[in-house]
Write a structure and sequence with these properties.
The structure is a single chain. With 249 residues, the protein is α+β, with helices and mostly antiparallel strands. Strands 1, 2, 3, 4, 5, 6, 7, 8, 9 and 10 form a ten-stranded mixed sheet that branches. The protein is globular, with a radius of gyration of 19 Å. The relative contact order is 0.19.
Length: 249
């Protein structure tokens, strides 16, 4: 059996997230159907993490085993001919048997794009969170730095504990970097960590927004972390602005 690694880019707007569901279009399900057409095998590729409905990826990683002898370069061409245009395979390569897209991952990076201009271009609307209202961006940046390090992120996790954890472990996660930057009309959040809980990045963004609006102070983020209570944090930011950008191994 061969163990293949895929690097994928996708527009998540019209999908109900990564994880396969019986009555909804998903990235994993669509990819599984394409792989079965190519190999004749029922394959369920494992992703580095489960992106939510409407979330995008620039470089999601998936792995699967197959007895197919199709060369990797032909796999790449055939998959992109089979998949919808909203999902592209960027790379196919052979990996050692022990490689697993999720279990082998050391770090992941997400970007969140907030469009700050008065009028959001229609061709951009599906890929950003349009927020044209007053916001103290310096305070938002100050708050983002507070979550760097190892913390219990229960306050920023989805309430359902079964979907709150990617691997069944505790809600402890290590954040290596967390910061905002201006790019013309966009205010972009970039966060890199050992792993992320369900809705964690979007809940962080929603809480940082409260800081920018003056509802809470930057230092209140430390208190919210310590409370370990989802109701202490801000609302979940829209999925449209979130991107999985890189996975490190």
């Amino acid at each position: 059996m061969r163990n293949l690694k895929l690097v994928l880019s996708y527009d998540g707007s019209d999908f109900s997230g990564w994880q396969v569901q019986p009555d909804a279009p998903t990235i994993q399900g669509t990819l599984s159907v394409a792989l079965e057409r190519l190999t004749g095998e029922k394959v369920l590729p494992q992703g580095s993490g489960r992106t939510d409905a409407g979330v995008h990826a620039l470089a999601q990683v998936a792995s699967f085993t197959t007895s197919s002898v199709i060369p990797t370069e032909n796999f790449l061409k055939a998959l992109n001919s089979t998949l919808p245009a909203s999902i592209r395979v960027l790379e196919v390569c052979e990996m050692p048997a022990e490689f697993h897209a999720r279990k082998s991952a050391l770090a992941k990076t997400y970007n969140y794009r907030m469009y700050r201009g008065t009028i959001c271009p229609p061709f951009l609307a599906r890929y950003v969170w349009h927020y044209p209202y007053p916001l103290d961006e310096a305070a938002v940046a100050q708050a983002a730095a507070i979550v760097v390090g190892e913390h219990d992120f229960t306050s920023f996790a989805a309430v359902d504990p079964e979907i709150g954890r990617e691997d069944g472990s505790s809600n402890l996660r290590r954040i290596f970097s967390s910061g905002w930057r201006r790019q013309a009309d966009e205010f972009v959040y970039t966060v890199c960590g050992s792993g992320f809980l369900h809705h964690m990045v979007r809940n962080l963004v929603g809480t940082f927004l409260l800081v920018g609006k003056g509802t809470i102070k930057p230092e209140d983020v430390s208190r919210i972390l310590e409370e370990r209570n989802r109701s202490a944090a801000g609302a979940t930011a829209p999925a449209s602005g979130l991107y999985l950008t890189t996975v490190e191994y």
